[in-house]
TrEMBL record:
<feature type="domain" description="CdaR GGDEF-like">
    <location>
        <begin position="272"/>
        <end position="395"/>
    </location>
</feature>
<protein>
    <submittedName>
        <fullName>PucR C-terminal helix-turn-helix domain-containing protein</fullName>
    </submittedName>
</protein>
<dbReference type="InterPro" id="IPR041522">
    <property type="entry name" value="CdaR_GGDEF"/>
</dbReference>
<dbReference type="InterPro" id="IPR042070">
    <property type="entry name" value="PucR_C-HTH_sf"/>
</dbReference>
<dbReference type="Pfam" id="PF13556">
    <property type="entry name" value="HTH_30"/>
</dbReference>
<dbReference type="Pfam" id="PF17853">
    <property type="entry name" value="GGDEF_2"/>
</dbReference>
<dbReference type="InterPro" id="IPR051448">
    <property type="entry name" value="CdaR-like_regulators"/>
</dbReference>
<comment type="similarity">
    <text>Belongs to the CdaR family.</text>
</comment>
<feature type="domain" description="PucR C-terminal helix-turn-helix">
    <location>
        <begin position="444"/>
        <end position="501"/>
    </location>
</feature>
<dbReference type="InterPro" id="IPR025736">
    <property type="entry name" value="PucR_C-HTH_dom"/>
</dbReference>
């Protein structure tokens, strides 16, 4: 047994049969299919319609033939599943089919071929699945296909929208309206019911604990949803093709990453003028190390795959107007921005502000912390600015109040003063100074620390804390009232800044 809707989803019926009327009867069960030469020669009293039978008119017929109406009534009275005619029908006949709730189908292809396809489905329900799987194996042979090619081939095979999704559910190739229904955290084949159909998804996994998972998903709507039990094996074959491409692409990425890391290591060990061979390797990589360089160090989150993250980091930096070299290095990324001439202090501050904005975008998903060095000239100065960026990044990893971001220019004298604040004399005084802020709503100590780290910028403090600017303004006003201070006085700001560091660091 199958349904009229399932027959409409057959590849041989798709595009060859349309529903003329009686859509309410599309879920009627079909137990057999009977051909008749025409409405006049249709089943009569001697040869009645069987229950659950679909009658297929194979011969020519007049569009306005009243015998079609009579055939519809005989099929309904016998409990039949529907009628397929080789042409259209008049309005009165369509209204009759709708009133009877009987599926009336119109064929544009050869009715006999449609009849054969329907009987094959009834006789061997697994044949449709087997043919689709075989077609998928033939299409996705041992060659490596790009994701776009895989999506296009599978879409043509199943006649439904298909997309490849990344580990956050965003389309990499193709497009789906219901991509959000894929549960990207569950690495098993999935099926989700949609208001007008079914969403099927199959994972394409790379080996390794930190490797991202990709999802091949198909959205079956309308009559295509009736093949929801047929498509999953073909989806698995296509997902294997995606996996082959991912493995090949991964090998290429890792090879390039090893070459870049080795070249970076040679540059960082440089203690004089680079050799001609090293200059050639740098030029082949498209890197710029002449002029003045500002180092960047980005620490990766513990679960992120460093090799695949380089392109995303470069994209986010470009979106902030930063043209930087980014190289996989250790447990994160090392990079730098080059200037033809020594950058002014204003240009350095502007670059640091853009890098801070990029770090906020990367924070939590890719980046764990970021540090920025000072400008150093020529290739032999690259190691110096990278070392400064690495030190700043190491400190940034322990400073949530700074947004896990530090520019080395923010250190210096304040860092020396911080060492003094770690004495037994200063710590009790610092705790007493900040005591009025304890147990107050709004996390006032952290707000004050972030505000002072941000050089009294309300907007930057709000971005670091993830709250509205008005909230920060109200908290700063409360802090000044509770402590009896004026944060526009630099001496009071310095004392409170050191007190915040003293109280905050041991607790963290």
């Amino acid at each position: 047994m199958t349904s009229v809707r399932r027959l409409l989803a057959l590849p041989e019926w798709s595009g060859q049969v349309r529903v003329l009327a009686g859509a309410a009867g599309l879920d009627a069960q079909v137990g057999s299919v009977r051909p008749v030469a025409g409405p006049v020669a249709g089943p009569g009293a001697a040869d009645p319609v069987a229950a659950d039978e679909l009658v297929v008119v194979t011969g020519p017929m007049e569009t306005a033939d009243w015998h079609v109406d009579a055939l519809l009534r005989r099929v309904v009275d016998a409990g039949g599943a529907g009628v397929l005619v080789p042409s259209g029908a008049p309005t009165a006949t369509l209204l009759l089919a709708d009133r009877l709730g009987l599926a009336l189908l119109g064929a544009t292809g050869d009715p006999l071929e449609l009849l054969v396809a329907a009987r094959l489905l009834l006789a061997a329900p697994e044949l449709d699945r087997a043919r689709l799987v075989l077609a998928a194996h033939r299409a996705f042979d041992d060659r490596t296909h790009t994701p776009e090619t895989v999506v296009r081939i599978l879409r043509d095979l199943i006649g439904a929208p298909v997309a490849l999704l990344d580990d956050r559910g965003r389309p990499l190739a193709g497009d789906l309206t219901a991509a959000a229904a894929v549960r990207v955290g569950e690495f098993v084949p999935q099926r989700a019911d949609l208001p007008d159909g079914v969403l099927l998804a199959h994972p394409a996994l790379l080996p390794g604990p930190a490797r991202p998972a990709y999802w091949l998903a198909a959205e079956l709507t309308g009559t295509a949803a009736a093949r929801a039990d047929v498509v999953p094996p073909a989806l698995a074959v296509a997902a294997a093709a995606v996996q082959r491409w991912l493995l090949a692409h991964r090998l290429e990425l890792e090879r390039d990453a090893r070459a870049r890391t080795a070249l970076l290591g040679d540059l960082l060990r440089l203690d004089g003028e680079p050799s001609a061979q090293l200059r050639r390797r740098v030029a082949d990589a498209g890197w710029q190390v002449g002029g003045w360089n500002i180092g960047i160090r980005i620490g990766a989150t513990s679960t992120f795959d460093i090799v695949t993250g380089t392109a995303e980091i470069s994209r986010v930096l470009r979106a902030e107007g930063i043209d930087a070299v980014v190289v996989e290095h250790g447990d994160g990324w090392t990079g730098w921005v080059s200037f033809a001439q020594e950058p002014t202090a204003a240009r350095v501050r502007a670059l640091a502000a853009r890098l801070r904005a990029a770090n906020r975008k990367l924070q939590g998903s890719i980046s764990d912390h970021m540090g920025v060095g000072r400008p150093h000239p020529w290739p032999d100065g690259l190691a110096g600015t990278v070392a400064e960026a690495t030190d700043a990044a190491r400190l940034a990893a322990t400073r949530p109040e700074s947004g896990f971001f530090l520019h080395v220019d923010q250190l210096g004298m304040a860092q020396l003063l911080l060492e003094w604040t770690r004495t037994d004399t200063f710590e009790p005084a610092a705790r007493a100074l900040l005591a009025p802020l304890r147990d107050q709503p709004g996390d006032l100590v952290r707000t004050l620390s972030a505000y002072l780290d941000a050089e009294s910028s309300i907007a930057e403090t709000a971005a670091v804390l993830g709250v509205h600017r008005n909230t920060v303004t109200a908290r700063i006003d409360r802090i000044e009232r509770l402590l009896g201070v004026n944060l526009t006085h630099r001496d009071e700001r310095l004392a409170l800044h050191l007190a915040c560091r003293t109280v905050d660091l041991p607790e963290r």
